[in-house]
Amino acid sequence: MDRLNINSQIEHLQSKYVGTGHADTIKHEWGTNQARDSLASFIGHNTLLSFISVAENECKARVKANLLEKMLQPCGPPPEKEEL
């Protein structure tokens, strides 16, 4: 009974939050989710954004725009799917 309850809770979390993954998640999808979460955190925390802007010697708006652009394909293009 406990195993069924735990599995239903895991399935609920996986359907609610994309970044938790599931059994069919490939390495590229997982890496992309992790990279986007990190970039969103950098953009959302003003102190991290300030740190990056000082390190890159750019204004905060330029750094924010660059980070947003990286979110499109942070790990490069997805791998081609194999046909069976």
List keywords for this structure.
mainly alpha; 65% helix; 84 residues
Give a verbal description of the structure:
By secondary structure, the protein is mainly α. Helix content is 65%, strand content 0%. It has 4 helices and no strands. Helix 3 (46-56) crosses helix 4 (60-70). The longest helix is centred in the middle third of the chain and has 18 residues, at 27-44. The radius of gyration is 18 Å and the shape is flat. The mean pLDDT is 88.
Question: What's the short story on this structure?
Answer:
This protein has 84 residues and is an all-alpha fold.
Mean of the pLDDT scores?
A: 88
H-E string = HHHH
Name the poorly predicted regions. none
Apparent shape = flat
Distance between the termini: 37 Å
Rg calculated over all Cα atoms = 18 Å
**Helix/strand/pairing class, anyone?**
mainly alpha
Helix content: 55-70%
Q: Helical element count?
A: 4
Amount of beta strand: under 5%
In this structure, how is the largest beta sheet organized? none
DSSP strand count: 0
Please specify the SSE layout and strand pairing:
Layout: H1 2-16, H2 27-44, H3 46-56, H4 60-70
